[in-house]
């Protein structure tokens, strides 16, 4: 019975299609040789013949024929008398080969061997999964949602391997239930408690980059390169692209006819607003494109401190900043420059008053906070509602109301 169980374990090895033949042979032989060493003290005089296809093996022991009176080691030597019982033609110095049967090892040894075999099978499977997904870091994988927990989702791939999508790697508006198909990028693979721990992400910029590669053949073929990707998952993203072929419009190719190519990406990302920008080495032009749709009048560059002062007409300031300050935040991340926006006053608006003039009534830190979001004059603040000021700045609503009251009084 133990021998049959052992062969069953061996058969499990045969079913491991992902393990190459050489590794299979090496591991099996290693396990059986360890057993021989424990029982006989050496494995040097044993031949192990493994039949992968049949799922069985044979163990043969080689012993030297010696005179009866010098016979000492029954494992490496066989007496001449015993050898002649096997074959009368044997002489001293010749080699006798006989098969070692499983029953000779005893029940405990066979049980231990089976446990070792099962452990190595499991170890090989884990190593295979770890190696497989280590090579897939940065690639999109598709799986099925198996379990939804508060802090993470358990996903199974098509081979039943477990993948983890943590809550912080999910788009805020993501909602998945058991059985749903899910796409994400592999961002990290590590060993945790001796098992492979595969972490997925849908918020990583790499996920967006790979989606573009899948949807835009020119990117996949290398005719268009993605230079940089920045995003606030589920809200807004900016993608800078460059073409190595003057005949190809990189932005048009990424968006597709009537948005056909980018629509699939937007849907996958829960309607994330994606700006595709033509990359350029001209940093002023790059910043101008990054702040789209706002129209820029001029830019003052501070190369040493990586800062840019951008001047716009008053009505363009809110476009440059964007909802919740996302547009200017992402433009800064994309270009690598800290961007500050300032409004340029037209002649008809010269009666406007600079916020610095109110320093005796409004605290300096409040003025600085308003200037940070592009409001450097009284009228620029008054053009915005209480709710807009509250969402764009870090000011309390009571402080905003006090400021508006002071500024309105100036013009009344």
By CATH, the architecture of the largest domain is named 2-Layer Sandwich
Could you tell me the strand content as a percent range? Answer: 25-35%
Radius of gyration: 37 Å
The CATH fourth-level homologous superfamily of the largest domain = NusA, N-terminal domain
- Could you list the spans in which at least 5 consecutive residues all have pLDDT below 50? 1-5
- Beta strands, count: 15
Number of helices, where a helix is a run of at least 4 consecutive DSSP H or I residues: 15
Helix and strand sequence: HHEEEHEHEEEEEHHEEHHEHEEHHEHHHH
Structural class, judged by helices and strands? alpha+beta
Instruction: Characterize the main sheet.
Output: 5 strands, antiparallel
Question: Might you state the CATH topology name of the largest domain?
Answer: N Utilization Substance Protein A, Chain:P, domain 4
Question: Which overall shape is indicated by the principal axes computed on the Cα atoms?
Answer: elongated
Strand order of the largest sheet: 7-6-5-8-9
Q: How many structural domains in the coordinates?
A: 5
Mean pLDDT: 87
Domain S1 motif: 138-203
Protein name: Transcription termination/antitermination protein NusA
Subunit structure: Monomer. Binds directly to the core enzyme of the DNA-dependent RNA polymerase and to nascent RNA.
Family: Belongs to the NusA family.
Describe this structure in words.
With 412 residues, this protein is an alpha+beta fold. The protein has five domains: 124 residues, NusA, N-terminal domain (N Utilization Substance Protein A, Chain:P, domain 4), CATH 3.30.1480; 66 residues, OB fold (Dihydrolipoamide Acetyltransferase, E2P), CATH 2.40.50; 66 residues, GMP Synthetase, Chain A, domain 3 (2-Layer Sandwich); 66 residues, GMP Synthetase, Chain A, domain 3 (2-Layer Sandwich), CATH 3.30.300; 56 residues, no CATH class. The protein has 15 helices and 15 strands. The strands form four sheets. It has a five-stranded antiparallel beta sheet. Strands 1, 2, 3 and 4 form a four-stranded mixed beta sheet that branches. Helix 2 runs antiparallel to helix 4, helix 5 runs antiparallel to helix 8 and helix 14 crosses helix 15. The longest helix has 28 residues.
